[in-house]
Amino acid sequence: MNKTQIRLAALALIVGIAPIFLPKRPRIARRILIKADRAHIFPLVNDLRNWPRWTAWNKRQEIEYHYDGPPAGAGATQHWRARGHSGVLHMTQSHEAERIAYTLTMGDRWLLEGAISLEEIAPHQTRVLWIARWQGAALPWARYRDLLMMMWIGHDFSAGLESLRNLAETTAPVLEPVG
User: How far apart are CA 113 and CA 131, in angstroms?
Assistant: First the structure.
């Protein structure tokens, strides 16, 4: 075997074995410091009608929304449809000015569990942590798709948190929901 064949064989071996070490339950976590009180930020994350104001995916494409249940907090539901895909975001928990939890279902095959927590670390300074996880692919080679999803979602979370910071730091505390 020549050097090229050896390198190709080594690459094929690495590509074939590496997915075994990728997580079976992928997790994304992003955080940001916002110069505002938790009580000021909380309505932006607790009311799903406000999410189009700061989430990143709204800037990429036009999305249709409609809502069920209460306007905010546990039980609030956002149905969305965009080009080629649709989903349901359902708020499962809401703890005033501290934390929300949700599920995101896309189609009939993908379920993501997420949470956003607010921690006041000093007067008028709040650390916002946005986490999500999902059941990864069962087949090891399909975990490369999960790796791509982790990068894509991580990028969206970072951009969304930056927009949330800009919105929270430049608006009055009482916010009217969109929709």
Answer: 8
First to last CA, the chain: 65
Tokens of 102: 């949700």
- pLDDT tens digits for range 96-106: 999 999 999 98
Which has the closest alpha carbon to 95: 115, 110, 112?
A: 115
Residue with tokens 């909380």: 42
| 147 burial level (CB within 10 Å; 0-12, 13-18, 19+) | middle
Q: Report the share of the chain in percent with pLDDT over 90.
A: 59
For the chain, the farthest-separated pair of C-alpha atoms sits apart, in whole angstroms, at 71
What would the two tokens of residue 107 be? 């189609």
75: helix, strand or coil? coil
Can you list the alpha helix ranges (DSSP code H) found in the chain?
Answer: 3-17, 38-46, 57-60, 143-170
- The confidence band for 57, taking pLDDT boundaries of 50, 70 and 90, is confident
3-state secondary structure 53-72: HCCCHHHHCCCEEEEECCCC
Q: Dig out the tokens for 26 from the structure.
A: 């992928």
pTM (predicted TM-score) = 0.83
Of 73, 28, 32, the residue nearest 168 (C-alpha): 32
Nearest 10 degrees: CA dihedral of 64, 113, 56, 79? Answer: 10
